[in-house]
Amino acid sequence: MKNEGVSTFKVAATYIGTIVGAGFATGQEMLQFFSRFGLTGLFGLVVTTILFIVFGYIIMHLGKSLNAGSHLEIIKYSGGKIIGTVIDWIITFFLFGALTAMIAGTGALFEQQFQISGLVGNIIMTVLTALTVLTGINGVINSISFVVPFLLASVMGISIFAIFKTPPDLTTTRVVIEESGLITNWLLSAILYVSYNTVLSIAVLGPLGVKANSKKALRNGAIIGGLGLGLGSIMIYFAISGNLSEIAKLEVPMIYIAGRISFAIQIIYAIVLIAEIYTTAVGSLFGFTARFVDMKQKPKKGRMIVIVVSLVAFFASQFGFSNLVKYLYPMVGYGGIVLLVCLVYSLFRSKHQKTAS
């Protein structure tokens, strides 16, 4: 049987799907990182779009060059033994944290939208994620790339409806919400946003680079993926900006906004949210598992890790969704800045070595 590589479309869709999860599509990330800064928050989103393209390409390029089976090879190459080890543990910790946040986000959604115990949502997402990851990297890529086009179209549609129904007010320079104190300005916010998302996505993007058809597919996939993430973020930013006073205290702001359009749209978006949360949960659990074991070589050990980690994340998710976004994400973002610097350095180093040889 012919071994086909991953196409540009699947590269872009997997990149988007790994990042577009509970924090993104619920509106919590836009609220905590950008909308509260008013117009300057929009400048931050332009910066993040460019950085997503750059770092998405760097990670996949290094993954392909190093034939990486997990993020570990890329990290050790980029940061060396000492810094690489520190970054490795930051990434591993956040992969678990992101999985926990996705499970918590599902529970928050079930409570706010369906008036069903959050525990039911937690259990459903835990089981679905674990079953998908047990199928391996191909199952992860296929599941994410299948869901993503529908997800992005839904986010765009809801945001456009919301913008026309309640035009955004960008004259407000800053909106007071309950803050963590970890984010003080729009530029720092943009860097931290890209930083923690890079920490999250590297676990999937590294091995994805190995499977890509060509370096052209990597480059174009990174560009399309980065632009898709940027456009989606900006649309949610505008939608939230017109409803800030109403949604500042909500766990799932975009559900409220969808409800202002119609109840049917609200239900559809709730289903979309669950699918988006699922894609990031799958990427996080796969990346965490791949860090410790090759599931092809040691399937029994891999299955055990998937099951145990899923159960621990389920219990940790009871901490609450908005709290995880508010405190965990910025903290990991600060640690991830070291990763961004190392990735840029390693790219220049590899190009210099090629030139020298």
UniProtKB/TrEMBL annotation:
Q: Does the keyword Transmembrane helix apply?
A: yes
Provide the transmembrane region boundaries. 12-31, 37-60, 86-110, 116-137, 144-164, 184-210, 222-241, 261-290, 302-321, 327-348
Q: Does the keyword Transmembrane helix apply?
A: yes
> Which keywords does this chain's UniProt record carry?
Membrane, Transmembrane, Transmembrane helix
State the superkingdom.
Bacteria
Protein's recorded name: Membrane protein YkvI
